[in-house]
Backbone:
């Protein structure tokens, strides 16, 4: 059987990739993909911990909630991306810089 | 005592009323075409007042948890419920005569206001990581939409885009922290987590992991409270959002963020011991909070010095105030917690007041720039005097309520012997006086060549400003009820 540490390793990689994606991408949709990676790394952790210990299925239940909330979050985020596109004609975050001045 | 699901409903009326009110507003918005503009605000106000009434009716004294340990019902929760509902009512009244929101259809705005208030009530009560995460996301998602409410406005859209990206990343980091904590302790219940952490000493690798958990979760709470270094969204979002929404964000979700911060750190990661808390050996999380607090107030105050946009200046000032409030949470004492509650209470009135003056001036002048405030005293003495009182209160000048907050906070810090910490706070307060005074100087002393045309203010807005002025002036005289109420409110479930 695969040991717990490999799951944790994969989830740590996913988390780092997600943060890297968020910090380097300029396209709003790509940034949201990075966010999804972060959320899924946490999900993987929760499910793995719950599977490899004898503490019940709390972690798996939490993961289900996280998946649902992530779907809601993406729905709101894409709606905002869409309205931003209507106003700016682009989803590049570097162009959304009026407030900096 | 843990109550089951059905028994808990008896103590859940305020939340149920808000939920029902929200649904009613949505229905009336769809079905009552002609009347909805009048009916919706009334329905919202009725729901908030009824929820406040039932909150005050419910017995919070006997500490217990609801819904199988999901929510805690204690005096601390009562304080925050009252605080958040009052904030909701004041923001609703302030949004009624706002020209910014008048340009768009407001049906959803009222439904969202009720939803976000519901989320904040749950947030202030949550005693379980799942509940904490869900309520935090409910508040976040609704406030993203509220910030972007002016759909055709470029600034509003940009603000809400920034808000949701920062928010999603920091709550994601917080969630990763939660998952590690779950792996370490095998539980999602805050009190079970504490028991598991106390059962054996945290050493070696576990110590590093737990420190990581503290930093990651601070990211989530820091985002909600706009604490440095998780504040980057704050100035942009506050500037871009409709002003009533900005006023709301600067007070209510911030307070709810402090409530979960206290619940998580004092309820989950420390043990109560005779009048104060001891942090679990090996993880010096108060040090993290003290560092965040010092950075927050210093950066907030220094950045505010050079702002010429009043909304942006108030945004940085609200960051600085988050730093002062955080001082109380980092102390681990009952007096520190009480000082934090007193500060939050006076902050509610002075900060909302300042933002409402900005709203009122924008209604007729369509500007947030400081130089356009020149000669405001000759045009509307009432507004200039009201703004001066709110600003003096924000500085912490004695006759006004803000002084009370600063007195409690610095007193609690000195009680713990952290003199350097109190000194940093006092220096910051002195720096802050400069930029608040600058606004007063523009309003009162500087005049432009134009003849002073009187500024028109609606009667509702005058009444609201007077309502906000009264606590700012009178709290210093009638401080003993506040003192007693907050002293009573520091009883946390499973805490002191």
Residues:
């Amino acid at each position: 059987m695969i040991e717990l540490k490999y799951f944790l390793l994969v989830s740590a990689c996913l988390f780092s990739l997600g943060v890297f994606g968020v910090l380097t991408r300029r396209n709003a949709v790509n940034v949201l993909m990075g966010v999804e990676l972060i959320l899924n790394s946490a999900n993987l952790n929760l499910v793995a911990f719950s599977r490899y210990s004898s503490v019940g299925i709390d972690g798996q239940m939490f993961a289900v909630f996280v998946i649902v909330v992530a779907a809601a979050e993406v729905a709101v985020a894409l709606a905002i991306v869409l309205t931003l596109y209507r106003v700016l004609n682009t989803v590049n975050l570097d162009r959304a810089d009026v407030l900096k001045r | 005592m843990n109550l089951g699901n059905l028994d808990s409903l008896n103590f859940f009326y305020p939340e149920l009323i808000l939920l029902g009110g929200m649904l009613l507003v949505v229905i009336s918005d769809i079905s009552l075409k002609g009347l909805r503009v009048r009916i919706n605000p009334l329905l919202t106000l009725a729901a908030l007042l009824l929820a406040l009434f039932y909150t005050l009716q419910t017995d919070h004294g006997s500490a217990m948890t609801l819904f199988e340990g999901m929510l805690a019902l204690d005096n601390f929760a009562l304080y925050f419920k009252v605080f958040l509902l009052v904030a909701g009512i004041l923001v609703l009244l302030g949004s009624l005569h706002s020209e910014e929101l008048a340009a768009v259809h407001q049906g959803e705005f009222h439904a969202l206001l009720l939803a976000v208030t519901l989320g904040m009530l749950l947030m202030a009560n949550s005693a379980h990581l799942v509940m904490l995460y869900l309520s935090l996301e409910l508040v976040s998602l609704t406030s993203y939409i509220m910030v972007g409410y002016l759909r055709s406005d470029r600034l509003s859209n940009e603000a809400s885009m920034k808000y949701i990206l920062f928010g999603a990343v920091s709550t994601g980091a917080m969630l990763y922290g939660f998952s590690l904590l779950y792996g370490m302790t095998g539980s999602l219940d805050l009190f079970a987590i504490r028991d598991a952490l106390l059962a054996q000493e945290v050493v070696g690798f576990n110590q590093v992991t737990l420190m990581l958990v503290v930093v990651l979760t601070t990211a989530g709470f820091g985002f909600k409270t706009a604490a440095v270094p998780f504040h980057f969204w704050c100035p942009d979002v506050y500037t871009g959002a409709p002003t009533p929404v900005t006023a709301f964000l600067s007070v209510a979700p911030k307070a709810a963020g402090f409530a979960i911060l206290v619940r998580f750190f004092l309820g989950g990661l420390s043990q109560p011991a005779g009048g104060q808390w001891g942090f679990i050996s090996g993880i010096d999380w108060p040090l993290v909070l003290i560092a965040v607090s010092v950075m927050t107030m210093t950066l907030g105050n220094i950045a505010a010095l050079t702002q010429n946009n009043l909304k942006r200046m108030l945004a940085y000032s609200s960051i600085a105030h988050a730093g002062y409030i955080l001082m109380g949470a980092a102390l681990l004492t009952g007096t520190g917690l009480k000082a934090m509650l007193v500060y939050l209470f006076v902050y509610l009135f002075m900060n909302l007041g300042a933002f409402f003056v900005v709203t009122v001036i924008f209604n007729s002048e369509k500007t947030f720039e400081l130089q356009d405030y020149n000669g405001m005293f000759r045009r509307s003495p009432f507004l200039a005097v009201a703004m001066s009182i709110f600003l003096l209160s924000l500085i912490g000048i004695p006759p006004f309520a803000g002084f009370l907050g600063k007195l409690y906070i610095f007193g609690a810090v000195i009680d713990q012997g952290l003199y350097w910490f109190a000194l940093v706070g006092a220096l910051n307060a002195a720096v802050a006086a400069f930029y608040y005074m600058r606004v007063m100087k523009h309003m009162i002393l500087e005049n432009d060549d134009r003849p002073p045309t009187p500024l028109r203010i609606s009667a509702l807005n005058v009444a609201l400003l007077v309502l906000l002025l009264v606590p700012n002036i009178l709290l210093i005289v009638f401080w003993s009820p506040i003192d007693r109420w907050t002293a009573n409110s520091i009883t946390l479930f499973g805490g002191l």
Remarks:
- The CA atoms of residues 228 and 296 of chain B lie 5 Å apart.
- Strands of chain B lie at 64-66, 71-73, 270-273, 276-279.
- Chain B has one domain: 5-489.
